[in-house]
């Protein structure tokens, strides 16, 4: 059980304390990394809380799940990756013959999961630009659409979607928001009326590029039970060390997000004034920036502080070309991205060093 925080505790206080309870044996202030896979039962079928086998429940994971739930304002389940979390939510919510609505700019892996895996099990989908709420309403098929998937800001072009507006137009379908880019520091979809949130905790929540993980957080206790059932039945659970690392990351989330945003603001400001650079996208919060430049590949290969790598959300800055790297699975689809697009994940280094790095890379790319 988590120690009770005052009900009006603000976000930073919740981020620092959520899910932490002194170890009952030693008083240790952080959760132990419980590696045990099984638990001794005093009599057959008698065990503490849900702890009979570590796929079903593990104390280090429970601590993380309590923390994630406290930050998003719902009931959380942790998974071994963001994709495992997405798969669990979709399979807990949908059945063969159901229809889902996807955004036209989304994480490539989400598109691949639906288009290449779940359609084989009878799921159907439509893709719409969700900035157009009428288009969302038109894509919803009454009685058949059971899920509207939202990603905001979108990836990689960083469009901001009106979550409450989508909820209004979803015709009663569950609205699930991939909150990986925004994080609960900037956006708490359940407070906007969405029924579910998913995360790749690999990114900002973990924040240090050292653990792959995912989470589902839902508003409705019955949906939570269904997600839990899939979590245990399919078994894509995170290991205790990864749970510990993500939970440790959560405690500095608010500070890191402020530094990411300041650096992204500085990089976007520099890029907007730069000849040759076009379509600089920065939604005004978070650490992601994208822009177009004819020498995209040479710029991405020419930075010294920004590392050329996939992924995002860590303390170190990363640069990538989505079309060649993270978004190959959407090539040729309605969600395809232009080849001259560059995406930055601005870390928490000094902003002047990041801007100087972009300047030399762009100058060097000719
Ligand atoms: C990375 C990412 C995912 C997938 O998460 P994994 O942890 O890599 O499985 C899903 N959505 C978004 C927006 C992401 O950036």
TrEMBL record:
Keyword Cell wall biogenesis/degradation belongs to the record: no
Domain of life, per lineage: Bacteria
Alphabetized UniProt keyword annotations: Pyridoxal phosphate, Transferase
Annotated EC: 2.5.1.48
A molecular function (GO) term: cystathionine gamma-synthase activity
Modified residues (N6-(pyridoxal phosphate)lysine): 203
GO process terms (BP): cysteine biosynthetic process via cystathionine; transsulfuration
GO CC terms, sorted: cytoplasm
Cofactor or coenzyme needed: pyridoxal 5'-phosphate
Pfam families: Cys_Met_Meta_PP (PF01053)
Annotated family: Belongs to the trans-sulfuration enzymes family.
Protein name: Cystathionine gamma-synthase
Origin species: Capillimicrobium parvum
């Amino acid at each position: 059980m988590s120690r009770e925080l005052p009900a009006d505790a603000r976000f930073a206080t919740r981020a620092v304390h959520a899910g932490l309870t002194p170890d009952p044996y030693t008083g240790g202030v952080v959760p132990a990394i419980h590696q045990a896979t099984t638990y001794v039962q005093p009599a057959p079928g008698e065990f503490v809380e849900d702890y009979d086998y570590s796929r079903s429940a593990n104390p280090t994971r429970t601590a993380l799940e309590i923390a994630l739930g406290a930050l998003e304002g719902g009931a959380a389940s942790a998974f071994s990756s963001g994709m495992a979390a997405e798969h669990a939510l979709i399979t807990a919510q949908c059945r063969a013959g159901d229809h889902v609505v996807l955004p036209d700019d989304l994480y490539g892996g989400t598109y691949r999961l639906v288009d290449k895996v779940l359609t084989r099990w009878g799921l159907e989908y439509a893709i719409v630009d969700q900035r157009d709420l009428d288009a969302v309403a038109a894509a919803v098929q009454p009685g058949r659409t059971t899920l509207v998937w939202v990603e905001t800001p979108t990836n990689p072009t960083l469009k901001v979607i009106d979550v409450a507006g989508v909820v209004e137009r979803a015709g009663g379908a569950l609205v699930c928001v991939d909150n990986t880019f925004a994080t609960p520091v900037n956006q708490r979809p359940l407070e906007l009326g969405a029924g579910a949130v998913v995360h790749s905790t690999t990114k900002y929540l973990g924040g240090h590029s050292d653990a792959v993980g995912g989470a589902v957080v839902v508003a409705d206790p019955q949906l939570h039970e269904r997600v839990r059932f899939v979590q245990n039945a399919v078994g894509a659970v995170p290991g205790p060390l990864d749970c510990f690392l993500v939970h440790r990351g959560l405690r500095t989330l608010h500070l890191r997000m402020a530094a990411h945003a300041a650096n992204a603001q500085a990089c976007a400001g520099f890029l907007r004034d730069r000849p040759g650079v076009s379509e600089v996208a920065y939604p005004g919060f978070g650490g992601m920036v994208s822009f177009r430049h004819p020498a995209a590949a040479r710029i991405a290969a020419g930075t010294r502080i920004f590392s050329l790598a996939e992924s995002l959300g860590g303390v170190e800055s990363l640069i990538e070309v989505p079309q060649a790297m993270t978004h190959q699975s959407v090539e040729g689809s309605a969600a395809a991205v232009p080849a001259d697009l560059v995406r930055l994940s601005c870390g928490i280094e000094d902003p002047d060093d990041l801007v100087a790095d972009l300047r030399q890379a762009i100058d060097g790319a000719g």
